[in-house]
């Protein structure tokens, strides 16, 4: 049984723990920023292929207490790296620390790289090259105040890169955060879903993948392909199973709109690239004038955050109109907005029934839930 750690956007740890349990992980432990779990290599491959919420699946290769830089060098030198990957593979070392007493993380990064190369040279007479842009193998070190843990990244590119999307927009929402928001919203395939500010279509793509039971990693490659001992036959079996589960693509109650023609075109391109354009109904529209596409459903949106002053002034005028539009057109719907603006409910003029803390990258946000009660806008008799 191997030990793994799955990283994820902050705020989705409980949902990821649940997902990894369903994928065969055992001894599951959620901590801020991710979930530790045990499993065999089938569990690891399956987690990479099927996890909608993880960012990376890291394999733990060493762990020990430390006091000085040289303790970490020795820990890294003791790992038989030549049995993990071939010397021809390029590498990069990443170091993260919380309350570490050591002064320079750059120096620790260098010492771990030296230890890996020294061990390779002792075992094979050659050393691997470093590639900081596109390494074959990624080694991650995590330091607490007294303990160092080394991981080998089994994912390669982050898992939110599904391999489909090619037309992105500025400040996008990562795919695994979008999938997590759909989960937190309680959306299930078959329910109506609307993203009225759909941008490049991230929420809609994730929903369409779910609706057709398509593994999010089906169209991409992984870091474990380049590891020694990669079990190609096992991987092929998991791929065949995933392809057999995939449902035929057809129309779903998924709706996207945006006021920008350019954004709509990007969403169309991305859905077409994934072969999911038949699943989603797209149209250019202003949210303030938009009618609900069904009697009830779930709305998800990532509205602009108003970082600059002119944006803040524009949003201050827009938000009260948004509240009125939701009350007028979306009775019977549950509406979810992710925003870094804690004043959003006050500006919209609606009471949030839930506020879930989430991080969009380094930006602390809230997922606000607004339940639009059917009939609440009916005028009382005089």
Write a structural description.
The protein has helices at 13-22, 41-50, 69-77, 105-124, 175-184, 202-211, 232-245, 261-273, 309-329, 344-348; strands spanning 2-7, 26-31, 34-39, 56-65, 91-97, 137-143, 147-153, 193-195, 254-258, 280-284, 297-301, 333-339, 354-360, 363-371. The chain is globular. The chain is built from 10 helices and 14 strands. The protein folds into 2 domains: 2-153, VC0802-like, CATH 3.30.2130.30; 175-212 and 248-371, Rossmann fold (3-Layer(aba) Sandwich), CATH 3.40.50. By secondary structure, the chain is α/β, with parallel strands linked by helices. The longest helix is centred in the last third of the chain and has 21 residues, at 309-329.
CATH class of the largest domain: Alpha Beta
Count of DSSP H/I helices = 10
Radius of gyration: 23 Å
Percent of residues in beta strands: 15-25%
Could you give me the name of the CATH homologous superfamily of the largest domain?
Answer: Vaccinia Virus protein VP39
What are its keywords?
Rossmann fold; seven-stranded mixed β-sheet; VC0802-like; 382 residues; alpha/beta; disordered C terminus; single chain
SSE topology sketch:
Layout (H helix, E strand, L loop, with lengths): L1 E6 L5 H10 L3 E6 L2 E6 L1 H10 L5 E10 L3 H9 L13 E7 L7 H20 L12 E7 L3 E7 L21 H10 L8 E3 L6 H10 L20 H14 L8 E5 L2 H13 L6 E5 L12 E5 L7 H21 L3 E7 L4 H5 L5 E7 L2 E9 L11
Parallel strand pairs: 5-6, 8-9, 8-11, 9-10, 11-12
Antiparallel strand pairs: 1-3, 1-4, 2-3, 4-7, 6-7, 12-14, 13-14
Helix pairs in contact: 2-7, 3-4, 5-6
